[in-house]
């Protein structure tokens, strides 16, 4: 049986939320609530959550106010399903599906930003022509789960999980996140939002609408805009518990630009993986900027990154292993890129 909810015109042009349960014979079971809205008691022992499908941001805000925190947001719901089936988190009383929110899917250019709708499927991100100029992001996407999962999962869900494998790539691209909050629309840097997970300042009622990446982060290797004598270095690496279709232990991303003088004009380095929080590595970035770009920096980068990376131990890998792996991936990646 499937739970469906619809919004129908109410008094004075408002929207009244209507919920009904559809059986295989399409028989509708309804219960009258005090406010006249038709709804069924869909939550309880063994029951599935009620699923609401707002058609725009106004209806979404109305639902948030009405349900008062007794809900979770969902799009592809691939991670949510895994968490529920594993008993990691309880199923919510209500689910608010975001799939019909206008403007939250697809990729386009808005001024000096590439905008990625939060509801854009991972497989669409992997194939998008514009995003091919952000190769670290596409490589990260292509290394997430199996193709069948990427057909359903969204980039917004990967971000909002707080531990998604796209996060290191998005961090080095200086991504910004566009949120619907109780105070209206807000734009925050990805780095500041991640820090909010550490200090407890995130609001779980905020809804991610889109991801914005500066156009100056686009790869210059295949364009006419590369300045003679300059060179772009970029790589992404993931280490999991097995070769494919595995949750990550460590993920790293590196993006840098060398000037004609042989020094780094720009460098951005990030690491994450597993259930740990992805982070930029400013000490490692400063190390590279302080000297001439050369393969001699690779060893120092590896040791600095290993020391700086904040991670954790679990049943699959120790904190020391994760730190050393992140450092080794970055050092080897830089050596390989500069050696060519």
From TrEMBL:
InterPro entries, sorted: CO_DH_flav_C, CO_DH_flav_C_dom_sf, Diverse_Substr_Oxidored, FAD-bd_PCMH, FAD-bd_PCMH-like_sf, FAD-bd_PCMH_sub2, Mopterin_DH_FAD-bd
Gene3D superfamilies, per the entry: 3.30.465.10, CO dehydrogenase flavoprotein, C-terminal domain
UniProt keyword DNA-binding, yes or no: no
A Pfam cross-reference name: FAD_binding_5
Domain of life: Bacteria
Keywords: FAD, Flavoprotein, Oxidoreductase
Keyword Flavoprotein: yes
Domain FAD-binding PCMH-type: 43-218
GO molecular function: FAD binding; oxidoreductase activity
Protein name (Swiss-Prot/TrEMBL): Molybdopterin dehydrogenase
Organism expressing this protein natively: Paenibacillus xylanilyticus
